[in-house]
Design a protein that fits this description.
Elements (H helix, E strand, L loop, with lengths): L2 H14 L5 H7 L12 H13 L4 H10 L7 H10 L1 H13 L12 E8 L9 E8 L10
Antiparallel strand pairs: 1-2
Helix pairs in contact: 4-5
């Protein structure tokens, strides 16, 4: 099996996990108004996931989208599409959380974690660290006992 066949097969699997109205919700939230280079909600989602999960720069994502056959775009054009897609992605995230696929029946607890550093003006390094946690199954911050 060729590498591109494997990637396409995996992508079809990812799509099968999502609720079915990808195109309708994309149009409703105006995430993809001008379909010049990116012609479908599926391609827009693939760009968004490529940027967020693969840690590519906008220029790398532009090159990848050309090679992957999604569309020939500049880094600025991709940035604009990502900005327009934020509300649409938020709705999809909430739908996936509520779809009953949130935690396995093995008793695992799934949390989303994020951390950042805060520097005061004129500081030479990190002054504070902020950590945030979100309980995916309960759709709330976790309860600390």
């Amino acid at each position: 099996m060729e590498n591109t066949d494997l990637i396409n097969e995996e992508w079809r699997h990812v799509l099968s996990l999502l609720p079915g109205d990808l195109e309708a919700s994309c149009e409703e939230k105006l995430a993809l108004v001008r379909r010049r280079r990116i012609s479908s909600a599926e391609d827009l989602l693939r760009l968004c996931l490529g940027y967020s999960l693969c840690d590519m720069s906008l220029r790398q994502l532009a090159a990848w989208s050309t090679v992957a056959g999604l569309g020939e775009l500049s880094d600025v054009a991709i940035l604009k599409r990502l900005r327009h897609a934020s509300e649409w992605l938020n709705i999809w995230f909430c739908r996936c959380c509520k779809s009953g696929r949130d935690t396995p029946s093995t008793g695992c607890q799934v949390r989303i974690l994020d951390a950042t550093t805060i520097q005061r003006p004129g500081s030479k390094g990190t002054d504070l660290r902020l950590h945030a946690s979100f309980d995916l199954a309960g759709q709330r911050p976790p309860r600390w006992n």
